[in-house]
Amino acid sequence: MAWRCVPCVPAISRRSFLRDKIINPILRPELHVGLHQAPRGILLFGPPGTGKTTLAKWMAASSGASFFEVTPSSIISKFHGETETLIKALFKVAEADSPSLVFIDEIDSLLGKRREKEDDTSIRMKNQLLQMMDGVSSCSGDKVLVVVGATNRPDMLDEAAIRRLSKRVLVPLPDFDARRVLIRTVLEKQSTGGCTLSDQELGDLSSRLEKWSGSDIRSLCVSASERSYDETVAKFGGIQNVPSRAAFRPISFSDFLAALEEVRPSCTSEESLRFFDEWAKAHGAL
């Protein structure tokens, strides 16, 4: 997976950090010992839909690491003790399949701030996960295991979890150039006619999408493509008469203008966007 596949994360500083501090140590663990040892816990945080999962997959693919994706629903069990067993098994398999990257999505749901009347099941689960994350730092020999957590609510994380996720990376909304690249990439890879928009049209469209996340922009592309789809189905008198995907015309600039009347960005609050910058400054994030 190339860097161009994660256009939502345009900042070169983040790219350099991830390459130098995460990918290179996985590729050459024998060179990264002592003070040069790579961080074993990373937190990706930012607004929803900014490509945190894709970024984690890029890190794994670029370093040749096995990728283990964990969500709260996949690891929390209603049966007594089973959640802790699943957590132990996950880290045991990941270590055996080294180099590995364990990606925990919505990590705040698993390692949220401790509450006064928290139930025993939740406490045991948190303690087990934190214990296994501690063990990551002491992996011996040539074993390389990195834990990457993702959240859009970093303020809800338990302090013990934040300490273990020692490198924190803000994944922001895409800037103007990233939005251009993302639109072009989506059209080239997923639309029948590829990207037929001119550079001027791409620039015009990108300038209209400030504060749009990567997932918002993809939703806009889907909405724009529906006009081509509907026109083609009507032209042939029903979906059963459409000869092939090649019959659908390329998506035009006017299709996007129409879609802009229907699709809205999911994160427009200045306060919520400012929150991520403030949290990043307070917690030493990149």
From TrEMBL:
InterPro entries linked: AAA+_ATPase, ATPase_AAA_core, ATPase_AAA_CS, MT-severing_AAA_ATPase, P-loop_NTPase
Enzyme class name: hydrolase
SMART domains: AAA
Keywords of this entry: ATP-binding, Hydrolase, Nucleotide-binding
Annotated signal sequence range: none
Residue ranges constituting the AAA+ ATPase domain according to the UniProt record: 38-175
Assigned EC number: 3.6.1.3
Superkingdom, natural source: Eukaryota
GO molecular function: ATP binding; ATP hydrolysis activity
Family from the record: Belongs to the AAA ATPase family.
The protein's name in its UniProt record: ATPase, AAA family protein
